[in-house]
Specification:
Layout (H helix, E strand, L loop, with lengths): L2 H13 L11 H6 L7 E5 L5 H8 L3 E6 L2 H10 L5 E5 L12 E7 L4 H10 E12 L20 H5 L4 E10 L9 E9 L2
Bound molecules: S-adenosylmethionine.
Amino acid sequence: MAVDDKIKWDKKYSENSDLLSPREPSMAVVKNYKECSGNRALDLACGAGRNSLFLEENGFEVDAVDISKLALDTLNGRSKYNKINTILADLDEFDLGEERYDFIVKCNFLDRDLIKRAKKALKIGGIMVVETYIEDEENEKMNSNSNFLLKEDELLDIFKSGFEILEYKTFWNESFEKYRMKKASIVVKRLA
Ligand SMILES: C[S@@+](CC[C@H](N)C(=O)[O-])C[C@H]1O[C@@H](n2cnc3c(N)ncnc32)[C@H](O)[C@@H]1O
């Protein structure tokens, strides 16, 4: 397990409990979850699970993976239908399998290798939402590590073959977030 990430995130959540407050799900998830035919979902780096909880309420069985026990305990306390399987794991190493999920969501967490593995874990015809921060000179958190920021249009490039792009947009992040940062969001369907 990436011990540094685990310590960092558990500390961050214990010192800023507002980060675990209930939050609205991603608009891209809300708008597009009905596009997929099955009900098996994966929420990568789920945190307190705003997207997992929405998917559970809408009939999905969700594997929700995160490295923070504090976040997963919070999510377990909010799950109403016993349809969320929380998994404490390091996503650098976690095996996502192949053609396993109908819907995959990865929000506010950038790991380019993980996107590659998530593409394979999606069933043919499955839907994936990737949404995270991008480079912009007006970002409030200027010292963000650029490894954790997408380049403008990078998501379009990542999904240019084998996927149909259902939606792509950039926007200024949700008001509940601490810093004003630009984000990109893509919704794709796996074709082959
Ligand atoms: C900014 S939060 C995003 C939470 C959620 N996806 C959302 O959009 O509300 C990033 C999450 O990534 C998790 N994380 C960081 N490194 C990780 C790793 N190596 N493996 C699994 N989860 C990790 C953190 O614990 C944290 O909950």
